[in-house]
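User: Can you help me understand a structure? I only have the sequence.
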Amino acid sequence: MGYINAIIILAGINIIAALGVAILTGYTGLFSIGHAGFMALGGYFSAILVKEFGVHFVPALLAGGLFAGLTSFIIGYPAFRSRLRGDYFAIATLGFSEAIRLILNNTREIGFIKTGAAFGYMNIPGHTNLWVVIGAVVLAIYFAHMFVTSQYGKNCIAIGQDEVAAQMMGVDLLKTKLLALFISAFYAGVAGGLLGFYFAYLSPSFFTITKSSDLLAAVVFGGIQSLIGPVVTAFILIAVPEVLRALAEWRLIIYGFLFVVVMIYRPQGLFGYVEMNLHFARAWWQRLRRPVAER
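Assistant: Let's start by predicting it. Here is the structure, written out as tokens:
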């Protein structure tokens, strides 16, 4: 039972981070392969607050997300001011993430705080459990849905569809992109904090390009402009490697193959453009209750 709980906890953390990528990539159209860096920033910051300063777990977790969101302006403001997008923005996020990982990998201490460099930051209180993660996932889905259905979310969708047309309609491109990046980094930071409080240990090796590619894969496989898609695929991408441990070393090859297949046969993703709302759930329930002869 503990093994199943561990898979569910890790999948839930993955879902929260993937929801952040979905807001930035799926809705705003800005591809990122550097969200592992935001997870690292949020994880280390929240862990330091709890361990070194005795801050309560929940405020520290939110502060870690806020810190990751604020640091996103370091890469976001110059990138969006210079109109970086597409592959260029993705490469910029990758460089930012790798810079964060290398800094943590070579920093043994910050003042009196022993971060451990490549050995990792140890003895973090283990506050993350199954119910904490389930509650965090529910709240993350709720607030993500509220955002994408708000006017700000509609502005993000407009930018993702056609940036020039959105600007002509009066959408503030810089402000909207920075907001989407901030929220996306906030989600990643909270996920990183939950990860640290679960393992009671953080290491820069947790936050490599592989982690970022996993999150991007969840969004691409799940579907563009969909929340239910990344939720489902983020869980699958954690559970399947556990089921097929013998093929774990082939994971990136399998991901690449699946990317090609999805892009060819279903470019919008498995649940592309399917919103997570009560109307969708009601229609699904009515279909199940319909007699077989009427289907």
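Now, to help you interpret it: The mean pLDDT is 88. The beta strands are 109-110, 113-114, 121-122, 201-202. Let me know which part you'd like to focus on.
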